[in-house]
Design brief:
The complex is a heterodimer of chains A (119) and B (109).
Chain A lengths: L2 E6 L2 E2 L5 E8 L7 E7 L6 E6 L5 E3 L7 E6 L4 E6 L8 E10 L4 E5 L3 E5 L2
Parallel strand pairs in A: 2-11
Antiparallel strand pairs in A: 1-3, 3-8, 4-5, 4-9, 5-6, 7-8, 9-10, 9-11
Chain B lengths: L8 E4 L5 E6 L10 E6 L6 E4 L13 E6 L2 E6 L8 E9 L3 E4 L3 E5 L1
Parallel strand pairs in B: 1-9
Antiparallel strand pairs in B: 2-6, 3-4, 3-7, 5-6, 7-8, 7-9
The chains are: A mainly beta (119), B mainly beta (109).
Amino acid sequence: QVQLQQWGAGLLKPSETLSLTCAVYGGSFSGYSWSWIRQPPGKGLEWIGEINHSGSTNYNPSLKSRVTISVDTSKNHVSLKLSSVTAADTAVYYCARGICSSTSCAEDWGQGTLVTVSS
Amino acid sequence: QSVLTQPPSASGTPGQRVTISCSGSSSNIGSNTVNWYQQLPGTAPKLLIYTDNQRPSGVPDRFSGSKSGTSASLAISGLQSEDEADYYCAAWDDSPMEVFGAGTKLTVL
């Protein structure tokens, strides 16, 4: 069964850089679009950005100046970096991969990583 | 404040049919397709409906989606206790970015 596994630091101080990595086990890495989405405690979902199978990126305009999403094809990893974090960046961060064929689409999500920003 | 508007809550009894609405604008739902997600308590969201009305493999046909103009709906028929969850609509916006609704908490009475 396909699993997306995420890891990264769970506690940051204000002004530090959030860094998370996501890998897929039991499934393919190439050909997929990869997204990062976050969810503040008790709140709804917020799209952070994506990188498609060609390496092109799109970012949430409200975060664009601080976000970088990249792929390491040698390790089959996708990474998220968010600089200059504040308490407002405290959230569960999810990676997700998606693919569509001519007949259907599929999407898988990671388990989520809680990142807390506190001095 | 979310770009897409959903009711904060919905409820129904087992076996009933429930619908959840999602209202947007010409820059998102009006010109792009809608996805729906189900988030069970303490878990990651799961894709329930894509491209307005398509179900991924493994999603029961009790779940259906529709869209008209700048609004979309998720319908759940034959409501079951395990359907109790938060439901989110999402659509690509011309910004360009993906936008979500604030979520609807479905309670099975």
